[in-house]
Amino acid sequence: MTEKLFSSIPYDQLMSWALTFCKNAVLALVVYLIGRWLIKWTLRIVKKMLQRSKVDPTLYSFLDSIVGVVLWFSLAIVIISILGIETSSFIALFASAGVAIGMALSGTLQNFAGGVMILLFKPFKVGDFIEAQGYAGTVKEIQIFNTILRTTDAQTVILPNGGLSTGTMKNYTTEKYRRVDVAFNVAYGSDLDEVKRAISEIQAQCPQILQAPVADSTVVAAPWIGLSQLGDSGLVVNTRSWCLGTDYWTVYFYMNETVYQQLRSRGFMFPFNRMDVAIVKD
After folding, report:
1. Burial (CB count <10 Å: 0-12, 13-18, 19+), residue 196
2. Around 257, how many Cα atoms within 13 Å sit in the side-chain half-sphere?
3. What is the pTM of this model?
4. How do beta strands 169-171 and 129-132 pair?
5. DSSP strands (E only) in the chain
6. With 0-12 CB in 10 A as exposed, 13-18 as middle and 19+ as buried, what is 145?
7. 34: which residues sit within 8 A by CB, 6+ positions away?
8. What is the average pLDDT across 34-62?
9. What is the Cα–Cα distance from 180 to 240, expressed in whole angstroms?
10. φ, ψ at 257 (rounded to 5°)
11. What is the pLDDT of residues 120-146, one digit of tens each?
């Protein structure tokens, strides 16, 4: 059968096909060797650029892999076309497969894109204390799809990067100083000046509270005390104290505990909600 097929083809045409195929094969081999060298050279250039830009190692490995896959795929298409094989069907096949995979992994791809954005723009880094999506904790690891937090009660929380990159997020570590706001209720009839004086002394005795503005910040101010509201059952006194971000919780608990003890020892009353019920007999 094969002999009949080749015997029906003229010798000159058969030799022309063979020569053409050999030329294309040699050309494809040369293109492959040159293309392989160009790909390695391009990947070295990309590596140097990423290192100079100080890209996160996790993102670097993914970008390096993606660039390599794209370049090798392009080289394969060129070689296939040189050999005389129709490439449009291959491209259409890969395109349709890419669309199907993209639709199936839409959520995963969103997290991947979010991870790339986080690693590029760095709204937070490992070690920062952040609050996002209802969770607060220290960033332990930034992966390409997820960010891992450890909460203050030693729980591990895994947040998808898609929502993390597009949603609202608080980073408590970015600023060097933080303001501690604490409100206290004192009974009506209390001497407000005495209350403010007592709280002011408490603020002055705390070594973590900054007593005056600092040169390297435009927001830090001296401790402040003021009457903020006439509440339902008492006066609401607000206090503002500036400190280093690492001392926030120390100052917060110090103010609550010490103000309660000091005001109570000086005879000030702390009001609480109560309900008076009158029983009327017919």
Report:
1. middle
2. 7
3. 0.60
4. antiparallel
5. 129-132, 135-142, 146-150, 156-160, 169-171, 177-186, 224-230, 235-244
6. middle
7. none
8. 74
9. 6
10. -70, -45
11. 778 888 888 999 888 899 998 888 788
